[in-house]
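Before the break, one more example. Copy the sequence into your notebook; we will annotate it together after we see the structure.
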Amino acid sequence: MKKLLLSALIASSLVFTGCFKDDDTPIIIEETTIINNNNGNGTGNDCPVVAVTGAITEDTTWNNDTIYQLNQKVVVDNGATLTIEAGTIIKGSPGTGSLSSALIIARDAKINAVGTATSPIIFTSTSDNITCGETAGTNLDENDRGLWGGLIVLGNAPCSFSGDISEAQIEGIPADDTFGLYGGSDAADNSGVISYVSIRHGGALIGEGNEINGLTLGGVGNGTTINNVEVVANVDDGIEFFGGTVNASNLLVWAQGDDALDIDQAYSGTIDNAVVVLGDFSDHAFEIDGPEGTADGSFTLQNATIIGNLTTENGEYADYRSGATGATNNIYAFGFKASSDVELDNDGVATNYNDGLLTFGAWEIVLPEGVTDVTSIFANKAETVTVTGFGSTATAVTQGANTVGATTSELAWTYSNTAGGLGF
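Here is what the structure looks like once it is written out:
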């Protein structure tokens, strides 16, 4: 069926010329009403599409009876708050490099995205045939990645940067776009609320080897609320924490192309109750880096269930690198290959382990076929530093007999649970 347009373009296009830091690009809104929206699953919902690009510089609300289409980068800036109603669908347009689409919450701006278990807020691609009132389309799956950019939130909380600079440009945003700056000295900085949000099919390429994460958190402070978030089929990492102090709970990452949960630059918050389901192209469930400058910080990652991949050579439990400091507690893992490991990557992180700066609580692992000793999964790859007891907090269990891990029922609302058949 073809789309039937009520009008090719409703006459009242709106142009706001707010201050857009890098090139004074205005925000442009074009509204097109679509009858029997063939983007959807045949429900026949009339659902207007609002195309957005540029800067949002005053408080704005996006409603759940409309699809918002991100054309290139949309930046919430100048102290504005973007409120997104429960059940709202946001679709990112295709494009790479400077044309990649993303929603960026700049420093001092806020997002108020509060969905519900039955009406989550959904970020997806314009290729997705989902429409208003639905929680899933029918034409994309976990193997459809890189169809748009992602969600980026930037704050003023402390980060540890090389050279001890006070701010830096976030990964995924070109250096000449000053709205990409993050970092500062306010640990309690508040970037808003992200709750019951599903982010799907992102990770557009902006340069060689540089893709946008599903959810990027740069210098986000602990005044921010992040809970009940899933990322599905992103080219790069699922959720990456660049410094900051924000706490995050009830997270699910499925079929990312690189790492599921990635910690960098002395992130000092707590990640609690997380599920990772690796796909065919996934790398690590956890990749944990430490400070890049002299400023330090210590993360807590706890109560997580990580599910491996048996169908390809890809897929590891975790990699601890670059002087990481923090605690990883109560992890349940199954479905991994005999070649998968939990790795101390270098001398610096091995030294931190010996000094008690990097600690491991209970890990319960269903042993892969051919593995008989659970401690053999824990590998010290340091060149000159030896460690003792690495893996001693791990025990072998049979699948389903775990006493640690995520409370998966908290994530029963997710698309991943339904489409992936996880049975939460």
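Helices lie at 347-354, 415-419. Residues 4-419 form one domain. Try to locate both features in your own notes.
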